[in-house]
Every structure is written in structure tokens, then in C-alpha cells.
What does this fold into?
Amino acid sequence: MKTAKSERYKELLEDYKAVIGIAKQQESGIIKLRKLDSKNQVYNPMDKNKYNIMKSKLEQHGCPVIAAHGDDERFLLSFGAEAISDEYGILHLGDIPSASAFFEEIIHHTQFKKYGAIKQDDYIERAAREIAANRKLLKHGKAYGFTSDDFSDIETNLNYWEQDFKRRVGASYDESNIKREI
It folds into this structure.
């Protein structure tokens, strides 16, 4: 009999394998995933006061936020991530993420509320949501206070997800009927 814990482990392991695959592509210059320095610190964290205010407002509006410490922090680091939104609609945030990571997870949380959780093996849905999120980040990045490195990373990620979507669907995101904008 399978337990929920062993199923969750398998899901996380699959996510980890997927991220390792992306990280290997990153080494070849296709996608830049890590924004953490050699000490696993964010190299361009957002303003601490702005972050605390926004985090508090999210919580007031019913968005569960977990400040990553201990196992949660190790979970984030295993993905080379500053922040992750999970399949339960919870935001897991490192100490103080970059503005781009913070806003991306807010977008994903909103997608979660609007479209539901992504099934583990639904790579088309994941790609569609990543495309919509990255486009929104590019559109509003200046207002969000992104750095030039943030914009470069977002453009690289967008290109990766658009190619992945087209490979899986046989049409571009714009040509498809799958829309995940918020």
C-alpha cells in the first residue's frame, strides 16, 4: 500500500530530475536557472522593507507564505530556487528573494487559484503557465524594479518555455488555444 508520503517523495524526485535536466541545459547556455551565489544567497535581493510589506499583504489576502528555514530551505536549494509555489497554493520563499522571483511566484499563485494545480506530468500546462508568467514579468518588470540581469534571465526562460511548448504541442503558444494569462 502506497502512502501519501511516499507518493509526495516520488513527485518531488521527478521535479528534482526535471530541474537537473534544465540545469544541465543551463550549463550549455540555454537557460539560466540559478540566481544564488556560491553561498546560496540571492545576489540581487529585493528591498527588505518592500518585501516585508508585500509578504504581509499577501498573507492578509489569504495567500499562505512559508519563510524557508531548515528543511524548507534545503528544499528550495535543491532546486537552486529563491522561491517556489507548490501544488497546494503555498508560497515557499527564501530569506529575501529577488523581485523577479517574488513576483513570478505571485503570478503562479494567481494561476493556481484561477486554473487549479498542475498535474505532475502535465508538461504542456506547466509550459503554458511559465510562458504567461514570463511575459507578464517582462511587461511589468520595470514597475516591479527588476534589474537588467532579471530581464535577461526572464527572456532566456521565456525562450526556453516557448520552445518546449512548441515541441510538445506542435504549435506556438500564441497559435494554440491554451491561454494562462491572469
